[in-house]
Amino acid sequence: MSLAYKIKDAAARAIKELYTIEFRADDITLSETKPEFEGDYTIVLFTLVKQLRKSPELLGKEIGEQLLRTQPGLLTAYNVIKGFLNLSIADTCFINFLRENSTKAIIGDMASTGKKVMVEYSSPNTNKPIHLGHLRNNFLGWSVAQILKAAGNDVIKTCIVNDRGIHICKSMIAWELFAHGATPESTGIKGDHFVGEYYVKCEGQIRQEAAELSARVDGGDYTAFSDEDQEKLRELRDLSGSVTGATDKDKERLKKIEEDRKEVIRAATPLMKRAQQMLVDWEAGKPEVIELWKKMNGWVYEGFDVTYKRIGSDFDKMYYESETYLLGKQSVEEGLAKGILFRKDDGSVWIDLTAEGLDEKLVLRRDGTSVYITQDLGLAEEKYKAFPYDKSLYVIADEQNYHMKVLKLILQKLGMPYADGIIHLSYGMVELPSGRMKSREGTVVDADDLVNEMVNEAAKKTSEKSKVDEFSEGELNELYETIALGALKFFLLKVDPKKRMVFNPEESIDFHGFTGPFIQYTHARLKSILRKAESNGQWTISNGKLEPLEKELLLLLEQYKDMVQSAAADYNPAAIANYIYSIAKVYNSFYTVHSVLKAETEEKKQLRLALCNLTANIIKEGMSLLGIKVPERM
RNA sequence: GGUCCCGUAGUUCAAUGGAUAGAAUAGAAGUUUCCUAAACUUUAGAUGCAAGUUCGAUUCUUGCCGGGACCA
Length: 634
Known about the structure:
Blueprint: H1 3-19, E1 30-32, E2 41-44, H2 46-52, H3 56-70, E3 75-81, E4 84-89, H4 91-101, E5 116-120, H5 132-150, E6 154-161, H6 166-178, H7 184-187, H8 191-218, H9 227-242, H10 248-268, H11 270-284, H12 287-311, E7 317-320, H13 321-324, H14 329-338, E8 341-343, E9 349-352, E10 360-364, H15 372-386, E11 391-397, H16 401-413, E12 422-427, E13 430-432, E14 435-436, H17 447-465, H18 473-493, E15 501-502, H19 516-533, H20 548-558, H21 560-570, H22 573-593, H23 602-625
Parallel strand pairs: 5-6, 5-11, 6-7, 11-12, 13-15
Antiparallel strand pairs: 1-2, 2-4, 3-4, 8-9, 9-10, 13-14
Helix pairs in contact: 1-3, 4-20, 4-23, 5-21, 6-8, 6-11, 8-10, 8-12, 9-10, 14-15, 17-18, 19-22, 19-23, 20-22, 20-23, 21-22, 22-23
This protein binds one RNA strand through helix 2, helix 16, strand 14, helix 17 and strand 15.
């Protein structure tokens, strides 16, 4: 039981005894005492004032006295200021905590919750390499899974690969047209980048063809279009002529018309038509198309493997859209039978979510083909069959909030037993100072490039500092990777997942202050002391008065398990990141004020060595929950 | 048109309805015969606006302003 909980529990019992009312530990508002006041933990009394009709000062005094009487081993003093009851914890409590944990390799040995949790994350497309946005997703997903594991859950990590569809066909078409048999091997380009380049080439070609078509349309030549499209284009032309463009609303309407027009023209370009035909051929299982598809996806996977390995992403089970895209139609049939879904006159199937404050949502097209939500219904079923979970997390950007809400609602309406366990771990997009990353404008920050850049930076910084002269080249390279990825992961994880964040390529690569390398450096310092102490890892810890900074550090360290629990409950790695940072910060202050190896007495040296060991262990373990390694020296 | 999210130091981020709103960075001034200065210390600087609920609001409610996402 944590100290914080012990205090809450004792306070609740004290209140029960004093005032003979029902009171639970969770009803106590407890916080750390602000540094300007005497004490360690503070009970906020205002909440009790109304209920008990006593002044906060009197309540504080009565509860404080009662607590001192009943908890002599836990508390040594109290004071009441305004409505706050400040409590001082006995040094021996911290020393006992240190004694019990200083030599453990693993601090977080939480009891099993017996709960099964599935975490789906990463979910790449096979037509482009991984970028900065994916990195936030990967780091978050991996870390949340790790935190949930640490909190005692049975966790399985999954990934759904978007390996089919029109975008893949674009890469394939472009490769056929422009590659002349080139391969990643023959060009020396990483597979995912290689395939991505052909996707870009295809888009470029389509744009060019669209521009030519557009010019012909402007000149009144509609011959490239089907009758239906011709009619639509003329309609759009008439529509735009009727809008003046004077007001903001009008401008928006014009923009929309222009987009619709572009879309019609794009779809009519020869290359787009070829891609569409290829998709049809793929679905029909045409052998040469399937073979090309397999070959190119294979290149992409080779590239992904390298990146995933480097950034530390891994999965227990992979799902491929090519295998799941036909699923879900059965769920639609069931929904129709149950009267939850309805069929419109044109044959398309919908669900009415207006009662839930949403719209009507299409779940099956009139030609009977799936939309995204259809396959997601099917995949949810598949996942539950494979791993009957209590909770299923989807780590997906917040632009999909609506989609995920609808998915959960439909499954709930269908009465699926797993529906309530579906949780959308929605995270904000990573933006650049100039705004959202756009592949069309070439502002996407590539993951491989970014990691390489950071490794170079880490190498530069390390050679300046140079505490690792005896390292071999291999050890050095490993250290650079550790520091670079530590900086990157910490940067992306320290922010509340729900919030959007800004990544400034120039400024965000920082190794000072609230960063991963700061914490790694602190760990290396700790380890340096422990090496020099040449101890056997066993220390004799005697009772005595703690220095304020020792106490402050122990107070934080003691909260470790509570922090993991609450980070798990909130699915929030940022809580761990902030917590570990505060430990490193306090430790560094302690480090400059007090010497460990040259402590005033042998007793203090022993205690401080144990404290160093515990601090190092918790930093290491906490950082491992974020997927960040900490070096022994740097 | 509808739904949802976000506005905190110059900048990037914190703050279960609780005390004088914390950090980092950029700025200013310092610390190294002593365990790793990627560190430490000092200093200056912020809750978009207006109401409401409350003993107490960055947090909850409403309106406005500004930014973003999604649905049709």
